[in-house]
Amino acid sequence: MEDVTIHGGFYVESPVRSNDAPKPTANAAGRVEDPSMLTILSDKLDRCMGRIATLENDLGTSKKVMGGAILKLKQEEMEVPLIRKRSTYRRARTQFHTPTFTGFRSTISTSVLSPTVVSEPAASYVALDT
Predict the structure, then answer these.
(1) Does the pLDDT of residue 81 top 60, yes or no?
(2) Which pLDDT belongs to residue 52?
(3) Does this model's pTM top 0.70?
(4) According to the lineage, what is the superkingdom (predicted)?
């Protein structure tokens, strides 16, 4: 550093000018930091942050458009009258409560045993004595 006189008596230190590239310095963790590499990484980080901001802006626009479309669909849904459909359970349940089924149930008697026919097996198996 050299001393430069300014306005009669004030001394300011100015850095020594050099055309040499900055030399890597060691940080507290003992790793060597290269200033040119840090500059390159900083530029890449700035570009990535710019891309992220652009994507977020595009997404924000998309969300607004989609939000409007969804709101429109909800409003149209409110205008359509609600049509109730019978569920499968309800259809199955009501089949057994019809007058026809009631008449059929009354003809079935639990006190009378019905003959059961059991078919003969095609072949019989006899275990041999061992």
Answers:
(1) no
(2) 87
(3) no
(4) Eukaryota
Residue bearing the bigger pLDDT, 28 or 33: 33
Asked whether the beta carbons of 76 and 69 are under 8 A apart, the reply is: no
Tokens for 37?
């590499």
How many domains would you assign to the chain?
1
Decide if 36 is inside a domain: yes
Range of the domain at 39: 31-81
Q: Is residue 44 part of a domain?
A: yes
At residue 113, φ and ψ (nearest 5 deg) are -80, 135
Residue 54 is assigned to a structural domain of this protein: yes
Residue 88 is assigned to a structural domain of this protein:
no
Residue closest to 34 by CA, chosen among 45, 42, 26, 46: 26
Does residue 108 come out as left (phi exceeding 0), alpha (psi in the -120 to 50 range) or beta? beta
16 to 12, 20, 38: CA distances (angstroms) = 12, 11, 23
Average of per-residue pLDDT values in the chain: 66
